[in-house]
Amino acid sequence: MCKRILFFVMVIFALLINFSCAPKQQLMTIKPEPEDAAPIAFDHIPSFINVPVSVKLKDIENQINAVLKGLIYEDKTIEDDNIEIKVWKQAPITIQNDNGSSDDKIKTILPLKAIIKYRIGTQTMGMNLYKTNEFYLNGVVTLTSNIGLTNWKLKSKTHITDLKWKESPSLVVYGKNVPVTYLVNPAIKLFRDDIEKSIDDAIESSMDFKPNVLAAIEKVSVPFKMNDDYESWLRIVPIEIYTTDSQLKKDKVLLQMGMKCTMETVIGKQPESKFDAKSIVLKPVSKMPNHITSNIVAVSRYEDASKIMTKNFSGQEFSSGTKKVTVKNVAIWHKESKMVIALDLQGSINGTIYLEGVPSYNNETKELYFDNLDYVLDTKNRLIRTANWMAKGVILKRIQENCRYSIQSNLDEGKETMLSYLNNYTPMPGVFVNGTMDDIEFQKVQLTNNAILAFLKVKGNISVTVDGLK
User: Fold this and answer.
1) Burial environment of residue 70 by CB neighbours within 10 A (0 to 12, 13 to 18, 19 or more)
2) Looking at CB atoms within 10 Å, which of 109, 166, 399, 403 has the fewest?
3) What is the tens place of the pLDDT at every residue in 19-39?
């Protein structure tokens, strides 16, 4: 009896040894080769950026004083109308809102002095019978200007509304200054048009936005690297620039500016700028929406996505009865508009299986997942022949649950970057940018040769304040 039991135990022991020493089933599958990973340009989705601009009258005042210095008007030809005029700015010009007017008007106060030479007489029989006299003027001129924005220039229509003399106008008679106020006040019309025009010219030349706008847009249009690891570049291509009429409110000139553009991300070497000042359309408009709509791209390289999904499979075991496998590594790539997912298995079978599917997005969890995930044809056929339990839908469904990853970090990083430019950002002294952002809205997924692109839309508002412009 003992011999039988001993014999039975030895048989069982031998079977266990034989089973444990038997080689694992090796799965040999054909790898779907990835497509060429050349740099690629993504779809163009127009963006619209609305920028309300606020310019303080004090900055206009500073710019005008920088243009008008010392001698601000001179007429050196006396032969045409018998008058020669020189006008100097005596002190800084001040500009303020004309509170007494219901229209958009500014009031300019100009301290000045002037010398007016005039001649009377005639020339006959080769004899010069002219007599030249000079007026000396020292006073403060008050001018009122209607302002408006035309072809990106702040223009004005100025009229002298008041003139107060610090000293009585005088006429030089035999080397002495003789007060002649009663003569000069009617004679102001001789140079008032020229003074008014000099103010208008100064406002127009100092408040020409077009060169500054185009220079700023040209800088923005130079592609800049967003991420060294991704080798991704953002290129902004302006299409149209808009502006509304200006409005005067208290101590500020307000106007709306906007830009329609495309934002594209290019992977690879730095692309060339597509800025072309001649092709940009400058359009006047009556109004614009009070928000920005920006389309951005969240780029996830396949290498990064593979690492994330490998972590998802860590510690996961897939079994059917006594058959078990674990996923040791995940690799993904693009082929023919689908995503190929390679899973390196270890356990009851060893080898690599390949799945394919179309990436989709879950807006609640902020995750990319793969819809209609299935084994590629070669993998399915080999599983049916050698490991049919793996080919069943239950295992595939569990695998699919782990083939997902979050792009929340991409969204947070993108939002943080954009907000950094909306918190009192100063691109140049005296110019301040502020704004807010709504949540990022997902649009679609696009596959490229070497990355998954999540197209996102961002809404918010932005404003630019000019205060202390140098």
Assistant:
1) exposed
2) 166
3) 334 445 777 788 888 776 455
